[in-house]
Structures are given as C-alpha cells and as structure tokens.
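Wait, mind explaining this?

_____
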Amino acid sequence: MPLSLGLPSCIQVFQTKLRVHSHNRSLIYANLQSPQLGRRSANFRPTIWHDYFIHSIKNGDELDQIGNAQRVCKLKNEASQMIYKEEPLRDKLELIDALQQLGVAYHFEEEINDVLTDIHVCQDLSAIMNSDLYLVSLFFRLLRTNGFSVPEDIFKNYFDDKGDCKSKLSLDIHGMLSLYEASYLAKEGEEILEMARHFTTKHLTNYLESSNFNDSRMKERVANALELPLNWRMERLHTRWFIDQYKTADQTRRALWELAVVDFNIIQDLYKKELKQASRWWTELRFYEKLPFIRDRLVENYLICVGTAFQPKHASYRIAETKANCLVTTIDDVYDVYGSLNELELFTDAIEQWDITLTEALPEYMQMCCLALFDTVESDAHDVLEKKGLNVTPILRRAWKDLCKAYLVEARWYHNGYVPTLEEYLDNGWVTIGANVFLSDAYCINDDVTATNLEQFSTGYPDIVRYSCTLARLYNDLATSSDELKRGDTKKSIQCYMHHENVTESVARGEIMDMIRKYWKLLNGAALGNSAFHKYFKNACLNISRIAQCIYQHGDGYGKPDSETKDQVTLLLLDPIKSI
C-alpha cells in the first residue's frame, strides 16, 4: 500500500503494522538479522555539538531584539536614500557592491535592481570600455552577478594579441584585483576572461611576494582573493570577514557597517532558534544512539543550509533541509559502511516503490531510516500543499528514489570490485553527493513556487542542477577520497582517473581541478543569465557549490568537523559581532 500524503504519520502507521504482523516476519528478515552477517565500521568521530549544548545557547534579550529591529529600520532608510542618491557611476557601483558583500542587499532587492537596470539600459558600453580597469571590471562583475547580460568583449581593449594586459596595467593593483574577481564569472568559451584569470593571478601573486608595496590592507585583500575568488566563496562567511574589513575601510558610509552588524546579529539569533528546533527533531529520532555507525552531524548540516539560503524568509527551507541533510548522511552511511548488498537491494526497492509494507522485510535499523524518511518527506509535502495548494510529493520522492538507486550502483561496484571510468563515475556520482535532494527541496519549499515552476522541474533535473551537484561531488572527492578508500569505500573520481589513465595521484588531482573550473563556467552560464528559474533557485544552485568548496577546502570538514568547520559554526551561529 503506497504511502499517502498526510496524517497519521508513517511512523505511527508502521508501529501499528508491527503490532499486527510481528508474529509473521518473513524468512528473509530473519536471515538479515543473523549475527554472522559481517559489518564494517568507519569509526566516524562523534559530534562535538551535543543537544544539551545546543539548547544551552543563549538568544538575545527580548528588549534588545526590539531595539535592534527598530535600529535596523532606521539604518535601512538611510541606506535606501544612499541608493537613489544621484552619484557618479563608480560611487553607485561601489555602494551596491558594499551592500552585497555586507550581506544586507536582500533588504534592497527592488532598489538595487532598479539602479542596475538603469545603468544597463542607459550606460554607453563604448564609454565604459574606455574607463579605467577597476571601474570596467566592477561594472562587469556586478551586472553579470545580478543577471544582466554583459559581453566579455568589454575587456578586449586591455589585452594585446599575445593575451597580455597592455603596458602599466599590471601596476594598477586595484584594477588587477577587480579584473581577477570578474574573470571568475566566465562562461564556457569566454577566452578573454580566461586570459584575464591567468594574467591577474600571476601579477597579484608577484605583488604579494614583492617588498615594494607596503599597503598591508591591500595585501590582505589580495591574499584573501587569491585563496578563493569571491564567486566561489560561501556568502555568509565572506560577509563575516567583510564586515570586519569595512569597519575601517569606508568611514563615509558608517551607517552601512552599523546596519550589517545589527542585521547579522538579528539573523544569528534566528539561526539559534532554528537550530534548537532541528535539534529537538534529531534528538527524538535518537539515530545517533540507535545507529552508532553513522555520522552525527546536525549542526554541520544546519550550517550547510545557512550557506545555501541565509535570508530570514527562508527559515522553513533551512529547517526542512537540515532534516533532509541528516537523513542523506544517515542513508549514505548505510550504503557505504553498514549494509550488506542483499539488504541494500531490499532497502532500495522499498524506497523506489515508496511502499511502507516493504519495510517489514528489512532489519530494524533500515526500518528506522525508511520510516523517518517517509515521514519527513510527506510532512514537507503536506506543508507545501497547505500553504500553496501545490502537490510537490512526486518531485520530493523522485529525488530520494534517484539518490538511493545511485547509492546502490556504487554499492554494487564496491562488492563486485569494479572500477568505473571517470565518466561512468560522474554520471552516477553527481547524484550520490545528495545535492539533488537539497535542490529539489529548495525548488519546492519556497514562497515563490508556482504550478508552472513545478512543470518545469517535473520532467527531470535541469542542467543547472547537474552542474551544481557535479561541483559538490568533485570538491568532496578531493578532500575525502583517501580516507574513504582506507575504510573500504568505492573508488572516487581521483582513483577512477588514476586507474584508467595510468597516472599519478598528483596528475589526477590536477585533472579534477581543471574539471572544477570547467563546471564553474557551465554553472555560471546557467545561473548568471536569463532563464526560466527564479533568482532564489539559481542562487541556491550556486551556493551548493560554494558551501561544498567551503566544507572541503581544508580537508574533510564534514567527517572531521573539529577544526575549520568548528570555527565556521562559531563565527556564523554562535558568536555575535560586537558593535563597538
């Protein structure tokens, strides 16, 4: 009997069925429970964020919250007046850039769009091309980032036939840095921007190593950019860094800094409440006790959701997606570590059929996973049905069915000792990263979803989803493949390429980095131009890739979250910014 939408929850239904049918377990279930069945263990590190700690986190005082809300209103009015003030092009662009990097642009979406539309329509492109390199690059980056069409030819006057910047431009460090950031918005086939990336990277690196420049602030900005370009950074973490930079960088717009600080702290207070809500759900499941082989990563999963959609209005998505993230990790560990192949075949069938009666043939640990999944998905779908009158159940279920089928493919490869080609691996691996679930949820669980939107998504995953998921997979593999091989997991992209191309690990890693740059260009092309998708969803696709890069930049920040990831949690979720 397929599970229907609504109450009672599927866990309640299952518990009733257990009482009725407990005397009639199938033979296969008995065999699966045999103590002779070997189990692997990954020895994952325990969580560093226990539920008692989460619930001890203090929220801001109620009176302070009221005062901060009033202060934000006042500062928003001041900022809005700045946006519409008649100013030179450079000042307008720098203001919008500051609002976006300070993380407060979501308050002024209409105003910013009005200003950029006027600039895009009215500005003489040939006049822009004859401006200084800094202004042209800033113009290009802001307009392209915000969905306006700007050709790369805008930079052609700055390069000679050999692909080098014309004389003396390399001494313009502000211009070089601005062009460097713009170059990472390149789409597939844009050769001028590729030349710009190589050229600016070379000269900015030389600048850092030179003793002729003593501007410590500029050197810090250059070092930060060379570590990671703006377009690849997790928005919220960059905002936290930029707020500190902006405090002393622009005293003429002090109100923007004050707005950013107060707004950051208000949103952080909201995050604390959401995290406690998610923690109650996770604690009630008690998976971390009953399934001790899994990674218990509630807080890290919530951090991923903040990286995907940080704005207050996306609270429902963050809660729903934190639950989904926890279930993705749990089920991933079932397939990768604990389940036998026979069990996994039955488990996949139960998910693919979305049939609660099939769970009765599963061992208890798999029953728990199935039923928590069914209950969570149906609850999310029911919420959307109540709020929007839309049936998103088929899309949400499809994502999980596809994920589990892809997990099973990897399990079969492992048990059969098969090493896929890199192409085979990625054709399956872009799904096993789990981001198809995150992006399906992002598409369905938001205030802007419509029946027309659902039709666009119902026939399959659009390219923008595949590009985003592939990037997340490649970032994950660069950081985790060695540890996963040690515990006996299937080979990842690096090992697949090494095996079939007969190359060293260093060469294979270089190939994966080239693929990452390629897929960023594809993602830019899909996300930064005109398309049928809402801006929120395009940003979610970009942000999934950014948060993957962030989590895995310094190693496995998810499996081993007690270093950089711990610091990120502290900065974004725990410690408010002091306003003095």
Observations:
- Residues 1-36 have pLDDT under 50 and may be disordered.
- The two ends are 61 Å apart (CA to CA).
